[in-house]
Specification:
The protein is an alpha+beta fold. It has one domain. Helix content is 25%, strand content 30%. The protein is built from six helices and eleven strands. The strands form two sheets. It has an eight-stranded antiparallel β-sheet with strand order 3-4-5-6-11-10-9-8. Strand 10 and strand 11 form a beta hairpin. Helix 2 packs antiparallel against helix 4. The longest helix has 22 residues. The protein starts with a helix and ends in a 10-residue tail after the last helix.
């Protein structure tokens, strides 16, 4: 473990010179990313809670390459997911509480003015209007819920695939009720951190074990008057983060859907 930590810290030091931002600029950038993500989520699901998601991928070492376990931490109005090596490998010994704080810590470590590097990433995306069309054109592995378990027929299906499957969103809508699924594939990342926030306040946090023994972290978000707004579930499996948001469905239906999901597909490719 000491050898791994030493190698990981050396790798981080090699990465840090590229992050030439002071703390204030980091805060501005994180705020800007949150605003852009919230606008995109409103376009995808107009009535869904706005979510701010960002990810850090680092070119680590061979020693850290196979560490794909992740830590899910609940926040006041959302959650963060951090790869185990990024969570435990902070060289100073401190553990950031969220992906945002991990980004802040890395930004503070290299405050060299005038040498900032801006990287423009070209995001490739494909859109499909049905799951059938998605399956016929894509080979991306995604664990899908059993449609027969929903007490509704989804009239609207929308699937977005980014960068060849690194990020997938699936919207299933039946009137005012919907299921929104999003998946991130981190298998090409040696370390990463992400943070998601919702407009409501977290409540009723619990664990739900599927028929296959996998464990979802499940929680509710409440509106300002304390009423149930949405039910959320998140799980990390073999390098992928899978999150589902449900609105308009009873808790019993959501639990039945989650329990029956086949997550073994993530071990077949």
């Amino acid at each position: 473990m000491d050898e791994f930590r030493k190698k990981y810290c050396q790798a981080v030091e090699e990465i840090l010179p590229e992050l030439h931002m002071d703390a204030e600029r980091i805060r501005d950038e994180l705020h800007h990313r949150r605003m852009r993500e919230r606008q995109r989520k409103r376009m995808l699901v107009k009535s869904a809670a706005a979510a701010a998601v960002f990810m850090l991928c680092g070119a680590g070492t061979a020693a850290a390459k196979n560490y794909r376990n992740s830590v899910i931490q609940m926040q006041e109005n959302g959650y963060s997911i951090t790869s185990m090596d990024a969570y435990a490998g902070t060289c100073a010994g401190g553990v950031p509480e969220s992906g945002a704080e991990l980004a802040m810590e890395r930004g503070r470590a290299a405050p060299q003015e005038g040498e900032g590097i801006v990287e423009i990433v070209d995001i490739q995306s494909k859109e499909y209007n049905s799951l059938e069309e998605f399956r016929s054109h894509e080979t991306v592995t995604v664990a899908l819920p059993d449609m027969a378990l929903f007490p509704a027929v989804f009239q609207e299906e929308n699937i977005l695939v980014f960068n060849g499957g690194e990020h997938v969103t699936i919207t299933l809508r039946a009137g005012e009720r919907y299921c929104f699924l999003r998946q991130f594939d981190h298998r090409n990342c040696d370390s990463y951190a992400s943070s998601t926030s919702f407009s409501g306040e977290n409540a009723n946090e619990r664990n739900l074990v599927t028929d296959q023994g996998m464990c979802f972290k499940v929680f509710d978000t409440l509106s300002e008057d304390g009423s149930l707004e949405s039910i959320h579930a998140v799980v990390t499996v073999n390098g992928r983060d899978l999150a589902l948001d449900f609105r308009g469905f009873e808790a019993g239906v959501v639990e039945q859907v989650l329990t029956a999901m086949d997550l073994s597909v993530y071990f077949t490719d």
